[in-house]
What we know:
The structure holds two protein chains of two kinds.
Chain A lengths: L16 H20 L3 E2 L5 E3 H4 L13 E3 L5 E4 L4 H10 L8 E10 L11 E10 L4 H17 L5 E7 H9 L5 H12 L3 H10 L6 H9 L4 E2 L2 H10 L5 H16 L6 E4 L12 E7 L7 E5 L13 E7 H10 L11 E4 L5 H13 L4 E3 L5 H11 L3 E4 L4 E6 L2 E7 L4
Parallel strand pairs in A: 1-5, 7-9, 13-14, 13-15
Antiparallel strand pairs in A: 2-4, 3-4, 5-6, 6-12, 7-10, 8-9, 10-11, 11-12, 15-16, 16-17
Helix pairs in contact in A: 1-4, 4-10, 9-10
Chain B lengths: L6 E6 L2 H13 L4 H4 L6 E4 L4 E6 L1 H9 L5 E5 H7 L4 E5 L5 E7 L13 E4 L2 H11 L4 E4 L6 H4 L5 E6 L3 H5 L3 E9 L1 E5 L1 H6 L1 H20 L5
Parallel strand pairs in B: 1-3, 1-4, 7-8, 7-9
Antiparallel strand pairs in B: 2-3, 4-11, 5-11, 6-9, 6-10
Keywords (chain A): Amino-acid biosynthesis, Cytoplasm, Glycosyltransferase, Histidine biosynthesis, Ligase, Transferase
Family (chain A): Belongs to the class-II aminoacyl-tRNA synthetase family. HisZ subfamily.
Subcellular location (chain A): Cytoplasm
Amino acid sequence: MANLKKYIPEGTKDILFEECRSKIKIEDLIRDVYINYGYNEIISPTLEFYDVFNMENQPIPQEKMYKLFDNRGRILVLRSDMTTPIARIAATKIKPEMYPLKLFYSQNIFRVNEVLNGKLSEFTQSGIEIIGVDSIRGDIEAIITGIEALKRIGLRNFKIEIGDSQFFRQLTDNLPLNMEEKEQVRLFIQNKNIAGLREFLDNNSKIIDLNALEILQRLPELFGGKEIITETRELLGKSYGIKALENIERVYEVMDKLGYSKYISIDLGMVQNLNYYSGLIFRGYCMEAGDSILSGGRYDKLIENFGKKLPATGLAINVDIVVEALKTQGKTFADNKMEKIIHCNFDDLHKGYDLVMKLKEKGTKAEVSLMKKLEESFQYAEKMGVKSVINISEQMEYKFEDNIWIKGSKIITE
Amino acid sequence: MESIKPLRIALTKGRLEKFSVDIFDKVGIDTEELKNKGRRLVLCDKKNNIQFVLVKAVDVLTYVEHGAADIGIVGKDTLLEEGRDFYEVMDLKVGKCKFALASIPSFNINEGYNRKKIATKYPRVTRDYFRKLGMDVEIIKIEGSVELAPILGLSDAIVDIVETGTTLKENGLIVFNDICDISARMIVNRASMKMRKDEIKSLIDNVQKVVNEFDKIPQKK
Lengths: 414, 221
């Protein structure tokens, strides 16, 4: 066995300096937006029992979960999504006098990926969940909060796409197709595989209602702006999916009045994870990211698994993807730059730290040099781009000018 | 939204390359650089703001999945074997061939109680095929000249791509079952499809027209 002492597992990363700073700053800004919109932060354990995630129609298949055993041989998993633990918490730990319950989190998620596919196995999601509201008011609130958060971190060229999981379900509910065939149709639509879909529908055209056939065939192409609503309405006539379309339209109208329609697009062919989502679904894209930057939707049936019937909706921002996209867009976050470096002999160390604290009170950032010699402190300062060094024993401030350190003014440090 | 970023198309090197170039040629894209590529890896059509890259089939999927390329042209064989996340928008109806189960004439799939050994370059396609039949087989992954495996007795049969059947015939193998048809497909990155809808949609429409025309003329092998 090769010694792995110096390596990290595939799909993980060490996040350093600039990238780490951006990531933390971005998380903070998002957190700020969530708090301002009235959400409460929660932290759940990294380890959960496998049973929490083991349910019918689980969104994350079990082979994607990292599993281990506790000291009694019970199966634990590294949490593979955040919504499920929140559903557990909402059903078992919180008994509010009144709903809605508005929660948020910024935590790491773990998923086993295929080897060498370049995806992260540990990644950060900052998300919100609105529990106890069954009307689209909840969904609208979630989308607006999501857009505000993305705007706040300075992301440009992004769109939140909305669809409705009910749309496909209502269309196919009454079709004489078995589960397997419906799943096949769903996959064709999800992958916008128009050729495959057409072939399948042609083969089954005798048993499928003409109107439904036409809509199904068009479904992969029903994405875009507001025009999609009108187009689909004509297509639907008086048949299926009208309620779902109405929901989308109402959401769109609110966004439009807010001036947010430029951030919204519609995809009626968005049909992934149908058994988990029960209403509106959202997905965020950005010009500079190949993967989705945000995802979410309504999940009215999930919390039931934990013993309480509660409707809910929510979304999560994929922080790592947003960090990358912002970097590509040229957005940087200001460095927490030192202004002064304090050099002192060992005996004067306390004076050095005392000065750091005094300077900090005045709003000046300073740090004590860990070097023994003044020369070394100069070198350190140069390397860190700091142009001022205070030598405690001389009570002297040195300035870096024209590439040399020159004595500046005397200062009283006592 | 006007974007300055070129639309990037990943093409599969080799067999599908010529077909792809022909199609894009007909669409009115400047393929001059593509035809005289020399050793360059990125080929441009500046007028239409399109960039082509030529890579191996599996890499087409990787580039498109990660959004490093917006669009890809790749064989259905690779899609079936790899199964990744993107839109598969069009059957280009070129590069047609099929997956087939083949072996030496004495092979009988239902004979004997031993688990059959199947050699293939496509383990996933093979596994899916035999699962559908409800059969438990042992799969041996071979990287090339799969036809050798049953001849040398390494496996009972093979699952491989069959284009004309010449290679099989010359090596004394016969097809026992056709598994599925294969042709070149156009795939699109999910985010690109949404963020650059107009550009991509019009490209898809134009390619579709060419494909429909090509499809009317019988294909030359």
